[in-house]
């Protein structure tokens, strides 16, 4: 009887101990939600983050620079941003580092309606291109011209902010705009129902990374286990989303009913997937960027993207693969 009473007390005590609470994590996106963001929502919906002991909150952003500032200030634990934008902040002293680079091939392109039949650089001659001055694509545009033998005198340009640039193409004031293959192209299609053809910078020898996960450097040091769990969950989320693009896109709408249209969200995500890997990382799991890819990116940004030349001294200061799960895909 005494033994049974003791066991009962022990069991009652164990039952009274609450389960360990999951770690609350805030991920801030680079912009309002679009197809590229599908893996994060899918991973949350499928319990992938919860399985790693993470209670994930996804917040929309207002640009990579603003999200980088939020991570530097520790108002967001992680950010999903344009890594070159993060580099420009880091070289000026912002305490941020990329803990995984997801888009290892650039999504930059010059795009116009398929019906205009602009499919190669030579077709840009005599056309009007809409740009946003000082944005990342406009900074790299001169390199694209150099690589393809185009001159600025070969075409006209109109300038404006992001929405003005979209409207210029939609309303016929411009034939093309500089945009991301999975972002602006889908916004144009949502607005018009018409397909867009992108002339991709990456197809003409412009090798540089794009979006990735960043964190505050002090936060990473103080929360190494949590960073590993977050990157493990995010890697699994990307891998799962790749296998079912439409379900991943639907996860966006389930969380944000006004987040877009299922067809273009799905198509946008499908256009994102090929950007995850280069020829060197095609057998690797997501986020495992190569040192050469990052070095090439730094060199291009120093020459064309306004990055301080001292960035060349130590490209590895901008990223780490140490918190990623090991192994091939």
Can you tell me about this structure?
The chain has 329 residues and is of the alpha/beta class. The mean pLDDT is 93. It is built from 13 helices and 10 strands.
As residue ranges, the low-confidence spans are none
Approximate shape:
globular
Q: What is the count of helical runs?
A: 13
- Calculate the mean pLDDT score and round it: 93
| Cα-atom radius of gyration | 22 Å
Main beta-sheet strand count, sense and barrel state: 5 strands, mixed
Helix content: 40-55%
CA(first)-CA(last) distance: 57 Å
The order of strands across the largest sheet is 2-1-3-10-4
H/E topology pattern: HEHHEHEHEEEHEHEHEEHHHHH
What percentage of the residues does DSSP assign to strands (E)?
15-25%
| DSSP, total strands | 10
* SSE-based structural type: alpha/beta
Quick overview:
The protein is an alpha/beta fold and 329 residues long.
Set out the fold topology.
Blueprint: H1 2-16, E1 23-28, H2 38-45, H3 48-51, E2 54-59, H4 64-72, E3 78-82, H5 83-91, E4 96-101, E5 108-113, E6 128-131, H6 136-148, E7 156-159, H7 162-170, E8 176-180, H8 184-192, E9 196-200, E10 211-216, H9 217-222, H10 224-243, H11 245-255, H12 262-272, H13 291-304
Parallel strand pairs: 1-2, 1-3, 6-7, 6-8
Antiparallel strand pairs: 3-10, 4-10, 5-8, 5-9
Index terms:
single chain, 329 residues, alpha/beta, five-stranded mixed beta sheet, 42% helix
């Amino acid at each position: 009887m005494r033994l049974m009473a003791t066991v009962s007390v022990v069991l009652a005590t164990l039952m009274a101990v609450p389960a360990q609470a999951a770690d609350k994590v805030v991920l801030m996106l680079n912009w309002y939600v679009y197809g590229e963001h599908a893996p994060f929502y899918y991973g949350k919906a499928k319990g992938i983050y919860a399985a790693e002991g993470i209670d994930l909150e996804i917040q929309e952003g207002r640009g990579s620079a603003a999200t980088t500032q939020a991570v530097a200030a520790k108002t967001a634990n992680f950010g999903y941003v344009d890594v070159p934008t993060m580099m420009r902040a880091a070289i000026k002293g912002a305490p941020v580092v990329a803990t995984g680079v997801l888009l290892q091939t650039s999504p930059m392109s010059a795009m116009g309606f398929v019906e205009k039949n602009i499919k190669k650089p030579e077709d840009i001659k005599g056309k009007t291109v809409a740009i946003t001055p000082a944005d990342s694509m406009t900074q790299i545009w001169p390199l694209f011209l150099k690589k393809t033998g185009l001159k600025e005198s070969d075409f006209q340009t109109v300038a404006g902010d992001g929405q003005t640039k979209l409207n210029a193409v939609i309303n016929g004031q411009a034939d093309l705009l500089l945009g991301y293959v999975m972002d602006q192209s889908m916004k144009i299609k949502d607005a018009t129902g018409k397909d867009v053809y992108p002339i991709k910078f990456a197809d003409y020898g412009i090798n540089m990374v794009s979006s990735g996960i960043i964190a505050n450097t002090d936060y990473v040091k103080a929360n190494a286990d949590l960073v590993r769990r977050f990157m493990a969950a995010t890697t699994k989320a990307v891998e799962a989303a790749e296998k079912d693009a439409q379900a991943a896109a639907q996860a966006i709408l389930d969380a944000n009913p006004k987040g877009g249209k299922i067809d273009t969200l799905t198509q946008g995500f499908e256009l994102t997937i090929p950007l995850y890997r280069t020829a060197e990382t095609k057998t690797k799991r997501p986020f495992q960027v190569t040192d050469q890819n990052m070095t090439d990116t730094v060199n291009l940004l120093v020459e064309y993207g306004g990055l301080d030349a001292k960035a060349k001294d130590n490209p590895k200061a901008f990223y780490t693969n140490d918190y990623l799960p090991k192994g091939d895909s």
